[in-house]
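Inverse folding, one chain.
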């Protein structure tokens, strides 16, 4: 069922506000702050997102949809995913800390892995990635990048993410240069 344009706009405003509020105050910030920042009523907030978990899932879905629009080149896609980890601290925190129904989280993990399946297969075929790397390893790679990025200063996160991708490239490339 397609939402009315004003309802869709309110949902988008809530998602944008959630990103801002959660990045400013953390993912445990009161939803009331999200509602206020989006400038919508309580009923609108809870009609769109009946609870915090529903909002978290929507934010994850949005990030995955954006990532799915990017390159079929494995390394470009991994770099873009690393940038998403840097730019959207919320997604990183949600993946790590959210008390989300494991079935719901498994669906998102499966989608993330699916986004990388074809680019990874192509990279294996052209021998730019070790054949032992499995699509399911992508979640681990992104957690590694996220851990590196979020342990350092905010101002250096993008640089750290790109360095982490480069180190991963060297580590899992089919033909290592050492």
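Residues assigned per position:
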């Amino acid at each position: 069922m397609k939402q009315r344009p004003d309802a869709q706009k309110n949902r988008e405003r809530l998602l944008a506000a959630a990103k801002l509020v959660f990045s400013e105050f953390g993912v445990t910030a009161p939803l009331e702050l999200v509602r206020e920042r989006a400038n919508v009523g309580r009923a609108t907030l809870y009609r769109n997102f009946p609870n915090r978990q529903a909002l978290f899932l929507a934010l994850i879905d949005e990030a995955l949809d954006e990532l799915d629009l990017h390159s079929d080149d494995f390394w470009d896609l991994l770099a873009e995913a690393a940038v998403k980890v840097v730019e959207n601290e919320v997604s990183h925190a949600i993946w790590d800390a959210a008390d989300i129904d494991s079935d719901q989280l498994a669906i998102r993990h499966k989608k993330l892995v699916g986004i990388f399946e074809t680019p990874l297969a192509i990279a294996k075929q052209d021998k730019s990635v070790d054949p032992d790397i499995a699509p399911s390893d992508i979640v681990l790679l992104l957690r590694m990048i996220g851990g590196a990025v979020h342990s350092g200063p905010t101002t250096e996160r993008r640089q750290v993410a790109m360095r982490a991708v480069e180190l991963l490239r060297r580590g899992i490339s089919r033909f290592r240069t050492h």
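The mean pLDDT is 86. The CA atoms of residues 87 and 158 lie 8 Å apart.
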